[in-house]
């Protein structure tokens, strides 16, 4: 079953690509349409820079609504309202005088409502790239660790800031009539919690959300 998934995905993408070739390109500069609305959904691959683990091991969902506005024939701006899952997963091989070698495991879930605002350039009718910033409001957080000794993380003393400002870069490829394959990278511009709230074992005074995102976007023509 698993071996059949990749060929099936490739077949669907090829079909969508053929459809896009047969029909007009969505962001062609000769089109008169100014406003485009739709939705986007996909996955985030996140880490927290400064948690002492590293690696984009935390997978989470992202999705919501999006609006594009044409400013010039090849220049657009977009605004999104997203629910996005960020955070971190850590695994480290350590040695303890009590248990010998063991794997320390760390879990951090950060869920936000986020509003990215971006400026896009369509360097071909099917390809566009963009950059901008986003404001995110934290709505839920959860942090746990499994190590050789019991560790209790007190949410009252390890709290996160409720806001997260990110810079954002990304691009999109039209793969069907109204369908786009989107890629994005974003990172916090300031620490996501105060130095005194960072757990002592992470040996850091600043932490930043850091993620790559892969999505599908559909815009109504």
Throw out a few tags for this protein.
about 220 residues, Porin, eight-stranded antiparallel β-barrel, elongated
- Radius of gyration, in angstroms, nearest whole number: 21 Å
CATH 2nd-level architecture: Beta Barrel
CATH class wording: Mainly Beta
Quaternary form? single chain
Report helical residue fraction: under 10%
Uncertain runs with pLDDT below 50, 5 residues or more? 1-5, 18-22
Number of DSSP-assigned strands:
8
**Helix-strand makeup class:** mainly beta
In terms of DSSP E residues, the strand content is over 45%
Would you give an account of this structure?
The structure is a single chain. The protein is mainly β. It has a single domain, classed as Beta Barrel (Porin). The protein is built from one helix and eight strands.
Secondary structure: elements and pairs:
Elements: H1 2-22, E1 35-49, E2 58-72, E3 75-96, E4 100-121, E5 127-146, E6 163-176, E7 179-188, E8 208-219
Brief characterization of the structure:
The protein has one helix at residues 2-22; strands spanning 35-49, 58-72, 75-96, 100-121, 127-146, 163-176, 179-188, 208-219. With 221 residues, it is mainly β.
């Amino acid at each position: 079953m698993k071996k059949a998934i990749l060929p099936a995905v490739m077949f669907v993408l090829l079909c969508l690509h053929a459809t896009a070739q047969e029909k007009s390109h969505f962001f062609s500069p000769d089109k008169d349409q100014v406003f485009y609305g739709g939705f986007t959904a996909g996955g985030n691959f996140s880490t927290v820079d400064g948690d002492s683990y590293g690696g984009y091991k935390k997978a989470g969902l992202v999705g919501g609504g999006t609006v594009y506005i044409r400013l010039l024939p090849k220049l657009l701006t977009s605004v999104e309202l997203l629910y996005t899952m960020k955070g971190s997963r850590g695994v480290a091989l350590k040695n303890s005088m009590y248990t010998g070698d063991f794997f320390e495991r760390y879990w951090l879930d950060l869920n936000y409502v986020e509003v990215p605002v971006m400026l896009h350039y369509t360097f071909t009718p099917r390809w566009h790239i963009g950059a901008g910033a986003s404001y995110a409001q934290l709505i839920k957080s959860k942090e746990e660790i499994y190590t050789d000794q019991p560790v209790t993380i007190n949410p009252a003393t390890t709290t996160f800031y409720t806001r997260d400002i990110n810079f954002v870069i990304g691009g999109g490829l039209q793969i069907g009539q109204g369908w786009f394959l989107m890629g994005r990278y974003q990172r916090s511009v300031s620490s996501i919690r105060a130095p005194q709230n960072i757990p002592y074992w992470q040996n850091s005074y600043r932490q930043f959300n850091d993620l790559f995102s892969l999505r599908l976007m559909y815009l109504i023509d």
